[in-house]
Please model this.
Amino acid sequence: MSEMIERVATVFANAGLDGCETTDLGGSIRACVGKCLCRETARLAIEAMREPIASMLDAACEGMPDPETMALHRIDATDQWRAMIDAALVAEPSSSSRS
Model:
C-alpha cells in the first residue's frame, strides 16, 4: 500500500468513515484490515484528484509574464500534478526488498 493511501485512509478511519475501529493499535489503520473500506475509499479519493481543476492551474500559473508562458506552464503543471498523483497511488517496495 502506498504511503499516501495509508495517510488518507488513517484520516478516514479516525473520522469514523466506513465504521472503522482504530483504537486497538493506537489509531493505526492496520487495526481495520479486513473490517472496512478505508483504504479503497482513500485510493478512490486520490484517483479523483488526478485531473487538476482550473483554479489549481491558475494558482500554479500565477505571476507568469505572458499568455504563451502561462499556457506552457499550465501543460507542465498538469503533467507534473498527474505524475505526483500517479506516484501517490503506487505501492512502495517493502523494506526487505529495498536492500
Q: What stands out?
A: Residues 67-89 form the longest helix (23 residues). The mean pLDDT is 80. The CA atoms of residues 21 and 44 lie 20 Å apart.
